[in-house]
Each structure stands twice: as structure tokens, then as C-alpha cells.
Design a protein that fits this description.
- By secondary structure, the protein is α/β, with parallel strands linked by helices.
- It has a single domain, classed as Rossmann fold, CATH 3.40.50.
- The chain has seven helices and seven strands.
- A seven-stranded mixed sheet has the order 3-2-1-4-5-7-6, sandwiched between helices.
Amino acid sequence: MKILNLYAGIGGNRKLWGDEHEITAVEYKPEIAAIYHDFFPKDNIVIADAHQFLLDHFQEYDFIWSSPPCPSHSRARFLGSFGENKIKIYPDMSLYQEIIFLKHYSKKKWVVENVNPYYQPLIEAKKVGRHLFWTNFSIYQVDSKTMFFPKDSLPTLQKKYGIDLSNMKYKADKRVILRNCVEPELGKLILDCAFKEITLF
């Protein structure tokens, strides 16, 4: 299959997809794209605006995964340790633009992923752990406790995700990078659900 992996990050969702597919990953930050490339050198990696790339190329793929940035929707940001001095920001509505666009224009399988927001989602979604999924296919129910690692240390997260960032040269919080990943098992389950190859783990 031809797969489009938008807002790819370091590729947590993609980790268990294997190498039999033709995968294009779109990531805006070159430093993060370089880490993705280290893990998945066979993928076609595009450094670009994923939102625009989707609009221009959505018809070229059999399966589209989109994980638009979540901070503006996050409960952690809204209710967390920022206090009264936190900067107020608008929710980034490109999330809902992509859901509506794919729902009406894409004839292939697609999924849009984001966090469980601090507000009532504007479009109904499937909740799995800390994630919400909007899809044009059914998602098998999983135990959400296996998909939520809120306070784990970096070594614990690296072990759970099976992703080692010890050689990462990019100056960023490694724990935050891993927390922004979709769990590999969940990424694999979503792909399997899209094409009716349900596997439990």
C-alpha cells in the first residue's frame, strides 16, 4: 500500500507497520525528520507543511494517517501547571478542517488522531486512552490502560515504546518527544482495523 504519514514526528505510530508498504512521512521540523529517518531509512521523508501536503496529495495514497499538533487542544495545557499566567491561545482548527475535508473528499482509508481535548469535541470521535480518532472505518476496542503512560520516566517510556533516543543530538526534551508519539501497538492496531486484519496484543 501507499501510506501517507502526516505530522510524522519520530514515527511512534509507524514503528510496527513493517517495510512492505510504500510510506511517505511529512514532518515540518528538519531535526525531528532526521530522527525519523534514522529509524525508518526506507521511507520517503518530506520536510513540509503537512496540512498543505494533505490538500495537494491526498488522492495519491491508499491510507492516510494525520496527527495534527495537539497543544492548543490539550487538557494538560488548559488545566495543567501553567497557572493564571499561561498565554491564552485559540484552538488550532486545522484539526477539524482535515476531518471535514477527508470525510467528504477521500475515497480511501483515513484516520485523524489528536488528544482528548479540554472542550467537547466538535465532531464525534472514537476515544482510546488519551487519544481521539476520527476515521472512515471501525476501530476495535482496546484496553485504554495499556495506552496511557502519563508520568513515566524517560527510560521507562523508551522501553515501553521500544524507541531509544540516547543518541539524539537534537536539543529537545526527549520525554516530551516520546509523549507526543502514538504508541506503536496502537498505531499497528489502527492500520489493521483499516484493512480488517484485526490483531490483539
